[in-house]
């Protein structure tokens, strides 16, 4: 009985699976996300740890039998500063944060982002650790002075539960890790002006590392002291594993708050002269990587249009059905995040737009144009990541049959969707079982899925729509300003 815990940005979820990969108990509770002036987005570590305790206690009480391990995954990027006891020295800074927008733009102009990308294959964006740490070093150095470790969500929770200061190699991948050696690239750190803060970076844990609940963690969760705990990989990698991505060339589309597109590869080589965006994420398997293009567009854009139009999210499917492919001529660019875009290009000034509107158009056309534009962004990302094999998908966005069909038609390929939505927790549990020496049958777990086929005539139509999207994007990029 391994409890998988997925600590998302706005929701923490715990799931217990049977040996065939079917969930037998689950619980969820929201986390608080503070949106502050100046594009700042923060979270309280104590509150997040409290959500973990809530869901773990709930599922542990619902199962018949002892808990044998705890498998953690969760949001990545951002900066979670802690002291030696795991206490936050300041509120955690989210990956959604935009306070370093201007700094990132300066780094792009000065060639810093290009240099880091050339060394690690990772593009930087305002919410990544490098930009946030550099911003804090200039504007809030006392916080860095008080901290012992600058880590991420999963390792912050793990420290509170086990007392261990660690980081999974997947979290450490962006932006300082050399994917081939799984070691930090000191020149990349120096390029960001952070060599004097190098001591804040925990060394990546070895593959199959297992920690154990200490007395505090046991009391917090109501579980036995000494219970095995695994801390990672973080949610992008865990979701790929949980969905069934196994072969190089296979990919996954995570239609969540953001649009995370990833392709599995056994080759860490990259075009050092290409667009400095995306990242190579190390996986639990040495020699395998996920080439990730985590765009900032996603279901947050759908939430925005629902608020704007005064509708509920469940109405989206019906509105999509009211319009037609091409949204009666309405086009959109979906870049609504205050921190711009991070894949497959990086631009803190990226902003959304609608065009082709007239008095004849209604809200169904606006909704469809936005959903189509997000699907075009997914195609852009997956092409940049090198998708050549099977495509899996998960996240809140694929709960809409109508929107999932748009994704399949725009991408021109079938989409495999796991029947259980908790794929992040699934992946964390599979990794934990492997680390404990009692692996589950991954093929059996991956068999619980359905496939959405594309409609050939829609694929042909969307070829032209994608070309128009690319042209609109190229024109807009010359106009964006911070």
Give an overview of the whole structure.
By secondary structure, this protein is an alpha+beta fold. The chain has a domain at 2-237: 2-Layer Sandwich (Nucleotidyltransferase, domain 5), CATH 3.30.420. It contains 17 helices and 22 strands. The strands form 7 sheets. It has a 6-stranded mixed beta sheet, with helices on both faces. Strand 16 and strand 17 (289-295) form a beta hairpin. Helix 12 packs across helix 13. The protein is globular. The model has no long low-confidence stretch (mean pLDDT 95).
Percentage of residues in helical conformation: 25-40%
Structural category: alpha+beta
Total strands = 22
Strand order of the largest sheet: 3-2-1-6-13-12
- CA radius of gyration is 21 Å
Beta content: 15-25%
> Assembly type of the shown chains?
single chain
CATH homologous superfamily of the domain at 2-237 - what is it?
A: ATPase, nucleotide binding domain
CATH topology of the domain at 2-237: Nucleotidyltransferase, domain 5
Outline type: globular
Output the number of helix runs.
17
Mean pLDDT: 95
Largest sheet: 6 strands, mixed
End-to-end distance: 50 Å
Indicate the CATH architecture of the domain at 2-237. Answer: 2-Layer Sandwich
Assigned CATH class of the domain at 2-237: Alpha Beta
Low-pLDDT stretches? none
Keywords: Carbohydrate metabolism, Kinase, Transferase, Xylose metabolism
GO molecular function: kinase activity
Pfam families: FGGY_C, FGGY_N
Domain Carbohydrate kinase FGGY C-terminal: 303-433
